[in-house]
């Protein structure tokens, strides 16, 4: 992949991560920013695949170990600086990177599910070509992007994007999603937005876009 020229702001973000979180953190941020430049105006399948593969290189780390909290949703740069995170962090980073690449918010949903394989709650990112189409699932457990019809191991609980919140029934397909109001009702999402707004060191991803 040929690196595209980074902006002065992006270079400062890399330097900040390097100085405060170490050389590897700076290199991860640099690789991410170069990836977003490289994928601009590329095909959607390539964007989905490259973004999914990039973040799936990071390691899983429990919130309590990493942040000292039972449940903490990190910004994409916090995730990269730490070098890992839990399933919410993987999904959120993929979501905002795809949004930065111009994918419409209405085509993306973060889906909170029960993983039958792990017997625990989990989060994945779904891409919908149309509101009624079978979504593609981007996941850190199963790294291969698959239609939701091939992910019978996931039982949905609810889904959301930057605007709306749904209670999801009838499988991860979301074909029986029931509107549950505005995403402002989701407290963890609001905490994430505020955290990003107040972080002056890496204003790359606009959480309100």
TrEMBL record:
Keyword tags? Nucleotidyltransferase, Transferase
Gene3D superfamilies linked: 3.10.620.30
Source organism, top-level taxon: Bacteria
GO MF, one example: nucleotidyltransferase activity
Stored InterPro entries: Transglutaminase-like_Cys_pept (IPR010319)
Q: What name is this protein filed under?
A: Sulfate adenylyltransferase
Q: Which organism is it from?
A: Vibrio algivorus
């Amino acid at each position: 992949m040929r690196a595209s020229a980074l902006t002065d702001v992006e270079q400062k973000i890399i330097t900040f991560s390097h100085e405060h979180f170490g050389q590897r953190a700076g290199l991860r941020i640099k690789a991410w920013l170069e990836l977003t430049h490289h994928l601009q105006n590329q095909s959607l399948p390539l964007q989905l695949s490259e973004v999914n593969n990039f973040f799936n290189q990071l390691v899983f780390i429990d919130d309590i170990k990493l942040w000292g909290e039972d449940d903490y949703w990190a910004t994409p740069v916090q995730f990269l600086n730490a070098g890992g995170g839990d399933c919410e962090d993987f999904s959120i980073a993929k979501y905002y990177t795809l949004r930065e690449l111009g994918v419409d918010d209405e085509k993306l949903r973060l889906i909170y599910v029960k993983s039958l394989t792990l017997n625990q709650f989990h989060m994945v990112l779904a891409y919908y070509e149309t509101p009624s189409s079978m979504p593609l699932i981007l996941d850190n457990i199963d790294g291969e992007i698959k239609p939701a019809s091939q992910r019978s191991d996931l039982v949905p609980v609810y889904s959301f994007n930057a605007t709306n919140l749904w209670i999801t029934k009838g499988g991860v397909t979301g074909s029986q999603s029931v509107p549950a109001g505005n995403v402002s009702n989701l407290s963890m999402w609001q905490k994430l937005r505020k955290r990003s707004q107040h972080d002056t060191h890496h204003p790359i991803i606009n959480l309100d876009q």
